[in-house]
Amino acid sequence: MSQAELHDTLKQLIVERLFLDRKGIAAGDLATEADLMEAYDIDSVELFEIVVALDEEYGVQVPEEDFSIELYRSVAKLAGLVEKYGSA
Protein backbone atom coordinates (compact mmCIF):
# COMPACT_ATOMS: atom_id res chain seq x y z
CA MET A 1 0.00 0.00 0.00
CA SER A 2 1.34 3.41 -0.93
CA GLN A 3 1.68 6.23 1.59
CA ALA A 4 -1.22 8.10 -0.03
CA GLU A 5 -3.44 5.00 0.08
CA LEU A 6 -2.57 4.45 3.75
CA HIS A 7 -3.43 8.07 4.55
CA ASP A 8 -6.77 7.74 2.74
CA THR A 9 -7.56 4.48 4.53
CA LEU A 10 -6.71 5.99 7.91
CA LYS A 11 -8.85 9.06 7.22
CA GLN A 12 -11.80 6.81 6.41
CA LEU A 13 -11.18 4.76 9.56
CA ILE A 14 -11.15 7.93 11.69
CA VAL A 15 -14.40 9.23 10.19
CA GLU A 16 -16.13 5.87 10.63
CA ARG A 17 -14.91 5.12 14.16
CA LEU A 18 -15.58 8.61 15.50
CA PHE A 19 -18.79 9.20 13.52
CA LEU A 20 -17.35 12.46 12.22
CA ASP A 21 -19.87 12.45 9.41
CA ARG A 22 -22.39 13.47 12.08
CA LYS A 23 -20.30 16.61 12.52
CA GLY A 24 -20.29 17.14 8.75
CA ILE A 25 -16.68 15.95 8.36
CA ALA A 26 -15.83 13.55 5.54
CA ALA A 27 -12.61 11.60 5.09
CA GLY A 28 -11.54 13.98 2.33
CA ASP A 29 -11.86 16.89 4.75
CA LEU A 30 -9.13 15.58 7.07
CA ALA A 31 -5.75 17.18 6.43
CA THR A 32 -2.88 14.72 6.75
CA GLU A 33 -0.73 16.95 8.97
CA ALA A 34 -3.52 18.61 10.96
CA ASP A 35 -3.72 18.08 14.70
CA LEU A 36 -6.87 15.96 15.06
CA MET A 37 -7.68 17.30 18.51
CA GLU A 38 -7.35 20.95 17.58
CA ALA A 39 -8.59 20.98 13.99
CA TYR A 40 -11.52 18.57 14.33
CA ASP A 41 -12.45 18.91 18.01
CA ILE A 42 -11.54 15.30 18.83
CA ASP A 43 -11.16 14.67 22.55
CA SER A 44 -8.89 12.24 24.38
CA VAL A 45 -11.60 9.57 24.66
CA GLU A 46 -12.12 9.67 20.90
CA LEU A 47 -8.38 9.56 20.37
CA PHE A 48 -8.29 6.39 22.46
CA GLU A 49 -10.83 4.89 20.04
CA ILE A 50 -8.26 5.50 17.30
CA VAL A 51 -5.64 3.65 19.40
CA VAL A 52 -8.02 0.67 19.62
CA ALA A 53 -8.88 0.86 15.91
CA LEU A 54 -5.20 0.81 14.90
CA ASP A 55 -4.66 -2.29 17.00
CA GLU A 56 -7.73 -4.02 15.54
CA GLU A 57 -7.13 -3.04 11.92
CA TYR A 58 -3.34 -3.05 11.67
CA GLY A 59 -2.04 -4.86 14.74
CA VAL A 60 -0.41 -1.66 16.00
CA GLN A 61 0.79 -2.14 19.56
CA VAL A 62 3.08 0.60 20.77
CA PRO A 63 5.29 -0.54 23.67
CA GLU A 64 4.31 1.12 26.93
CA GLU A 65 7.67 2.84 27.28
CA ASP A 66 7.24 4.46 23.83
CA PHE A 67 3.55 5.36 24.20
CA SER A 68 2.60 9.01 23.99
CA ILE A 69 -0.70 10.58 23.03
CA GLU A 70 1.29 12.82 20.69
CA LEU A 71 1.89 9.78 18.45
CA TYR A 72 -1.83 9.73 17.60
CA ARG A 73 -2.56 13.38 16.90
CA SER A 74 -2.41 13.45 13.07
CA VAL A 75 -3.04 11.15 10.13
CA ALA A 76 0.65 11.38 9.20
CA LYS A 77 1.69 10.26 12.69
CA LEU A 78 -0.84 7.42 12.59
CA ALA A 79 0.62 6.24 9.29
CA GLY A 80 4.06 6.24 10.91
CA LEU A 81 2.73 4.02 13.70
CA VAL A 82 1.24 1.58 11.21
CA GLU A 83 4.54 1.40 9.34
CA LYS A 84 6.63 1.00 12.50
CA TYR A 85 4.46 -1.19 14.73
CA GLY A 86 1.78 -2.66 12.45
CA SER A 87 1.60 -6.33 11.59
CA ALA A 88 -1.20 -6.31 9.02
Write out key terms for the chains shown:
88 residues, mainly alpha, Non-ribosomal Peptide Synthetase Peptidyl Carrier Protein, Chain A, globular
Percent in strands: under 5%
Order of helices and strands: HHHH
CATH domain topology: Non-ribosomal Peptide Synthetase Peptidyl Carrier Protein, Chain A
Structural class: mainly alpha
- CATH superfamily, by name, is ACP-like
CATH class: Mainly Alpha
Number of helices, where a helix is a run of at least 4 consecutive DSSP H or I residues: 4
Task: Give average pLDDT, whole number.
Answer: 94
Overall domain count: 1
Largest sheet: none
Helicity, in percent?
40-55%
Count of individual beta strands: 0
Which spans of ≥5 residues are poorly predicted at pLDDT below 50?
A: none
Please compute the radius of gyration using only Cα atoms: 12 Å
